[in-house]
Amino acid sequence: MEVGYVGVEYGEVGHVAVRLYGDLADLAATGRPAPHHQVPVAAPRAVKDVIESLGVPHTEVDLVLVGGSSVAFAQRVIPGDRVSVYPQFADLDVATVSLVRPPPLPEPRFLLDVHLGALANRLRLLGLDAAYRNDAGDAELAATAAADERALLTRDRGLLMRANVVHGQLLRSHHPDSQALEVVRRFDLFDAMAPFSRCPRCGGSLAPVAKAAIVDRLQPGTAATYDTFTRCAGCQQVYWPGAHHDRLAAFVEAILAAGASARVADPLEGGQRGKRKSIAGVLSSGSRKDCTPGAGEALPTEKAAAV
Fold first, then answer.
1. Do the beta carbons of residue 196 and residue 232 sit within 8 Å?
2. 227-236: long-range contacts (C-beta < 8 A, 24 or more apart)?
């Protein structure tokens, strides 16, 4: 069979040939990683539907090419078309050509699925705006994320495939520490973090509070041992650097270290993010080699706990 643009085979009659790049191949609903697919198409069909029929939510896609041209998700494909689907790459900039990337969020704000309470705790520890309820249904989550301009975080592919979900992320890991690093990397939040500035319980802002103002709420041993306290402006929970603090600080340090390792030393700027290659340059070079995002560092295991 003839080989087409960027290594995608031309579609057979009645099929669209789809090539999933990078870690999108791991999401293919085939039981094993598979980059090449033939999707049956009996009539013109939106490319978004074709991609999601393979188990890949549109939120995970950063660039779609049909016949070598960048297209939007609404683009109709027909039998014989060839489709290349790219994820977000750390070292590949597609901003100038992508027609599927949504406008950026005004600020990094997240809404978490009902099974991600521990991740909500971690993101709040990092100082990020992470809304969470354990009783919301899929329709409510999707509508709230859209109305409040929040990125929806979940491990549920079907939830992210809803048409009204604009920003979102399909989390790969089951462990909340690693999930937190996934989110920070995906949305490039290393410079947006303000560790220990939010309440892990409700996400409200923390501010220093005088010991005298809250001493009646403390156990005698706590009052005798600690002098530094913060209080949540929302739920009024009081925090101090207790027994769990070192473990939580180790988690924060691991995230910050991951950010530092992503920087490239620069004698003039004192360090900057690695330069991202233009997708136009990569495609025009004729290279068919996959670009693969770096693997995530392991983070210390810990139980969810108050600061």
1. no
2. 230/196, 230/206, 231/206, 231/207, 232/199, 232/201, 232/202, 232/204, 232/205, 232/206, 233/204, 233/205, 233/206, 233/207, 234/199, 234/202, 234/203, 234/204, 234/205, 235/199, 235/201, 235/202, 235/204
Task: Please name which of 117, 110, 90 lies closest in space to residue 168, comparing C-alpha atoms.
Answer: 110
Rounded Cα distance between 165 and 150, Å, is: 10
pLDDT tens per residue across span 37-84: 999 999 999 999 999 999 999 999 999 999 999 999 999 999 999 999
Instruction: Note the pLDDT of residue 244.
Output: 87
Phi and psi torsions of 35, nearest 5°: -85, -30
Nearest to 264 by CA among 249, 250, 276: 276
Angstrom distance (rounded) from CA 59 to CA 15: 24
Query: Structurally, what CATH architecture does the domain formed by 5-93 represent?
Result: Roll (3.10)
Measured distance between the N- and C-terminal CA atoms of the chain, rounded to whole angstroms: 60
Distance (Å, rounded) from C-alpha 200 to C-alpha 307?
A: 8
* Per-residue DSSP letter, 102: P
- pLDDT-based confidence at residue 34 (cuts at 50, 70, 90): confident
